[in-house]
Amino acid sequence: MKLRTIFCAITGLIVPAASAADAPATPPRAQNVILIIADDLGYADVGFHGQDQFKTPHIDSLAAEGVQFSQGYVTENVCGPTRAGMLTGRYQQQLGAERNVGPRRRTLDVPYGLPLEHKLIADRIKEQDIAKTAIFGKWHLGGEHLFDQRLFPLSRGFDEFFGFLEGAALYDDVTNREEKYMRGNELVEREEEYYTDAIGRESISFIERHKDEPFFLYVAFNAPHAPMQAKAEALERVKHIEDPNRRILAAMIETMDDNIGRILDTLEKNDLTEKTMIVFLSDNGGKPNNNFSINDPLRGEKGTYYEGGIRVPFVIKWPGVAPAGEKIDDMVFSLDLFPTIYNALGGEVDESWKLEGINLAPHLGADAAAFPRRTLFWKTGNKWAVNDGKWKLVKEGGEMELFNLDDDLAESNNLIHQNPEIADRLLKAHQKWDDTTVPPNYGWDPKLPYHSERVKRK
Predict the structure, then answer these.
(1) Which of 22, 43, 122, 275 would disulfide-bridge 295, Cβ 3.0–4.6 Å?
(2) What are the pLDDT digits (tens) for 321-357?
(3) How far lies 321's CA from each of 39, 62, 137, in Å?
(4) 222: buried, middle or exposed (CB in 10 Å: 19+, 13-18, 0-12)?
(5) CA–CA dist 381, 386 (Å, integer)
(6) Domain presence at residue 19
(7) According to the lineage, what is the superkingdom (predicted)?
(8) Together in a domain, 405 and 331
(9) Which DSSP helix (H) or strand (E) runs through 136?
């Protein structure tokens, strides 16, 4: 395990992690949890990772007042599968949810979306009546093809939904001409606000209405995913950026940050700041030639299994549990969020759920238990990767590549010929894990036979 440190503004002390025997006996609790996910945000597109072209003060405040994970990973290099894994706590490849939702499916019997037999964290929360639940923003777990309400958020454990089902939507579709904007199970006729602001508005309303009871709020911003559309006033703030494409991205991210600030202000106004855990991450890496994000110093981008596709900004602010300024270099996975959030809200994970992640709470703070040694896996079709925390084996093209991430974060030096025994060990680990996966149920892959036409929704 790498050294973990807590930076103290007064003493400058560096405190090593304690042993597992020193972990707190009583599981920590939070009255509320807010899970915020950005869409296609680059690793270098936040201030706490060194970005200085534009401002992300509220996202940076979460990092400054919480824990930053330098090796924060998601389960996929594209949007939908990451969300499937994160919200079920299972590798999506074990659920038939390996690919983005698309108009093709394996058989006529499977739905166009996350299989109905697999429970989301919101389902589990509602089963135990633990908290009110809501999602505002991007869904991308099914329902848009054939407009199948069984796959809508209100059928998957959420009390409230305002957003869209697809992988992307316009930011300024006032009359909802795309037929994407929804409230509950119904299309809305108009949305006057820029959509990032609308997501912020709905999140604030939910907090205000449920401030006196526990809640789980999933804020799924579509920013800064394409289409590249920004507000005029936000563009004015970043007019110093010469590249016009990068300027639009900056304006979109600043607007998302503004709305995170509005959410934080609402918590403070209602005396909920100290009672609320907040998680912030991106669903995958940025795509420089599409939304003009930057993943430096990482190699690769969205759609690849190099670090730039799967290592993301990842922060937890949890008053009383996650010390301000803590930075952890151990691997953290988006699969860890289900058990962490569920336990934080007072639930007890059942072994029969077969969750793949760990509860992060015992591993935070000066008296934390050491992170377990583990290996993480990724796969889509014939592309895959496996990472044991130091060594990473990748198959992006025809040949496998082996990288030592401790010494080569940019994945520039393929060491497979110098270390065949390490490559063989990781390859066998991947093959054993791959035996637990199932074929994808749906997607855009032409090998999937059954095709649907998008139905008229009005």
Answers:
(1) 43
(2) 999 999 999 999 999 999 999 999 999 999 999 999 9
(3) 27, 14, 28
(4) buried
(5) 14
(6) no
(7) Bacteria
(8) no
(9) strand 132-138
Residue with tokens 């007890």: 348
Instruction: Give the position of tokens 């497979």.
Output: 416
Residues 164 and 60 in one domain: yes
CATH code of 429's domain? 3.30.1120.10
Instruction: Kindly state whether residues 341 and 435 are assigned to the same domain.
Output: no
Same domain for 137 and 202 = yes
State the sign of the Cα–Cα–Cα–Cα dihedral 51, 4, 342, 309.
positive
How many domains, in total, are found in the chain? 2
**Residue 176, domain CATH:** 3.40.720.10
The tokens for 434 are 């791959």
Q: Which of 329, 316, 285 is nearest to 45 (CA)?
A: 285
Residues 281 and 313: their CA atoms lie apart, in Å, by: 5
Residues 6+ apart with CB under 8 A from 219: 34, 35, 36, 37, 135, 136, 137, 199, 203, 263
Which pairing describes strands 32-38 and 67-73: parallel, antiparallel, or unpaired?
A: unpaired
Structure-block tokens of residue 114: 């996350």
Mean pLDDT value across residues 207-228 = 98
Segment (H or E) for 160: strand 160-164
d(C-alpha 181, C-alpha 186), whole Å: 9
